From TrEMBL:
Recorded family membership: Belongs to the YciI family.
Organism expressing this protein natively: Amycolatopsis endophytica
One Pfam family, short name: YCII
Name used for this protein in its record: YCII-related domain-containing protein
Chain ranges of the YCII-related domain: 4-111
Recorded superkingdom: Bacteria
Amino acid sequence: MPQYAILIYEKETPNGPADIPPEVMEANLAVGPKIEAMGARVVHEQGLQPVAQARTIHQGGAVTDGPFLESKEVIAGFFVVETTGLEQAVEIGKLLPIMDGAVEVRPLLEM
């Protein structure tokens, strides 16, 4: 089955996950069983630390604090799913609650 990265973009909150409303957190936790019911599979999922923890390595080896791209939204987390195709991956992405950002679905290269 093809694999897709589902990238979750949100505005960064001062206290990280502690600022996520309980109903949004519950909706996030409910996504896994829904994905399984669709016949798809979560290969990996991970939340990310705040962008202040990020370091960016540039061509030539210079290292700077923070993310490579500066924007209001940051990548808050991601997961990889195996699905029947892009349409199902998009349906999985629609299951996620979005507070202020967006969800990006991107096919992974097959190696």
